[in-house]
Amino acid sequence: MNTKSFEGVFQMPVGDRTQKPREDGITMIIDKGLGLTATKDLLEMAGDYIDMVKFTFGTSAFIDMDTVKKKVKLLKEYDVWTMPGGTFMEVALWQKQYPAYLKRCEELGFNAIEISDGTIEIDLETRRDCIKKAMDMGFKVLTEVGKKNPNEKIALDLMYKEIASDLECGASKVIVEAREAGKGVGIFDADGKVKEDEIDGILAGVDDPTKLEWEAPIKNQQQHLILRFGTNVNLGNVPPADILALEALRCGLRGDTLKKAWEANKDWSV
Residue 204: how many CB atoms within 10 A of its CB? Predict the structure, then answer.
């Protein structure tokens, strides 16, 4: 990591931020079709703070193979994990093309796979088999719990079973669904505000909260989760333009997280 512009002048108000490659404090960005130049610019500015890029929903289906390969290769040069969105996986499974899907992901250079049932129905045995097949091919596996349609909310006891089963099968993280918009789904209400009771309900059946990754595309959501879980909470669906702003939040360089750090250590002592 190169010397940063204010390194040596002051310390980050919130310490203990993990460094890449990291297992906790992951930031996953949602990519709806950045070009090669835009991707390179993003990585030059913020590559140290991006852990994973999800080529979201079906966007990469409309990009030629060579371009996808070049983009994935560029991201991997910056130690960024890459994966298609879970929608691809769901379509492939529905059409009985899951092995072919994994093979194509391998050909394109992706090194991670998202396994979800946000739209279609997948039983637990099939879910476990999908995880195993992906891991056998060397992919890092992230799974997702929750439905994209707010009218199809799954029962907490089923969510607990899915999370426990996924982690037992080797999933590195389980993503809590909130969609791209972060409104009216999962732990967020229709205005995008956090529902604490929903978080509490999920955590009640989870042994290790660090294994969860919370989709949180909006600043107030990210702030809330950082204040609750700390600087190294795992966050997903972050817009590319917000990466540095999010890292500032994590490290106490924005108002609310700075306020908390200052109140805990007003006379600054290392």
Answer: 9
Q: What tokens appear for 49 in the block?
A: 């703070």
Could you report the per-residue pLDDT of 223-268, keeping only the tens digit for each?
A: 999 999 999 999 999 999 999 999 999 999 998 899 999 999 999 9
Is 55:85 a contact under the CB 8 Å cutoff? yes
Structure tokens at 116: 């979800």
Give 27-258's CATH code, choosing from 2.40.50.140, 3.40.718.10, 3.30.450.40, 3.20.20.70: 3.20.20.70
DSSP string, 188-203: B-TTS-B-HHHHHHHH
Neighbours of 128 (CB within 10 A): 18
Radius of gyration of the chain (CA): 19
Largest CA distance in the chain: 62
Cα–Cα distance, 196 to 207 (Å, whole number)? 18
Residue 175's H or E segment, with its range, is strand 173-176
Bond preceding residue 84 cis, omega within 30 of 0: no
Among candidate residues 202, 132, 210, 208, the one with its CA nearest the CA of residue 171: 132
Q: Give residue-wise pLDDT tens across range 190-202.
A: 999 999 999 999 9
Helix ranges (DSSP H) in the chain: 36-46, 65-77, 86-94, 98-108, 124-136, 156-169, 196-203, 219-229, 243-250, 255-264
- Is the pTM higher than 0.85? yes
d(CA 246, CA 251): 9
CA 237 to CA 55: how far, in whole Å? 10
Pairing of the two strands 212-215 and 81-84:
unpaired
Which residues are registered as beta bridge partners of 212? 174
